[in-house]
Amino acid sequence: ASSAGLVLSVEVLKASGLRNTDRGLFRRSGDCSDPYAVVSAGGRKLWTKTIDNDLNPVWNAEAFSFTLGAAERSFNIEVFDSDLLTFDDSLGKVSVDIGKLATGKWLTQKESLGQGNGTIEFKV
């Protein structure tokens, strides 16, 4: 089956068990990572809003839509910690194989963000 011009819709729901990377000069007690998620596909990147001080964020973001080229076989979701003064830290990433997805219906998936990085839940 050809996937030329296939439209992929991704809805980022939540993450859990994220690492806390907020440390440094201005660290206050109770400070945690300020996560947001970036979905990359079809040469585009779209991101959720940032949720402050939460290692188990719930985004329930609106669906992001991407038009995929025929050669594309996967999309990525990466979670970052938003930092005001430094580069945002990656909290983990997953690459999802498009070939394993059912077409025509929403399916909730839960994937690891890598060893010790928690999990991400999303619908495709």
From TrEMBL:
PROSITE patterns associated with the record: C2
Record's GO cellular component terms: endoplasmic reticulum membrane
Domain C2: 1-111
Alphabetized InterPro entries for the sequence: C2_dom (IPR000008), C2_domain_sf (IPR035892), Extended_Synaptotagmin (IPR051634)
Annotated transmembrane regions: none
GO molecular function annotation: calcium ion binding; calcium-dependent phospholipid binding; phosphatidylcholine binding; phosphatidylethanolamine binding; phosphatidylinositol binding
PANTHER family the UniProt entry points to: EXTENDED SYNAPTOTAGMIN-LIKE PROTEIN 2, ISOFORM C
Protein name per Swiss-Prot or TrEMBL: C2 domain-containing protein
Organism: Alexandrium catenella (Red tide dinoflagellate)
Source organism phylogeny: Eukaryota, Sar, Alveolata, Dinophyceae, Gonyaulacales
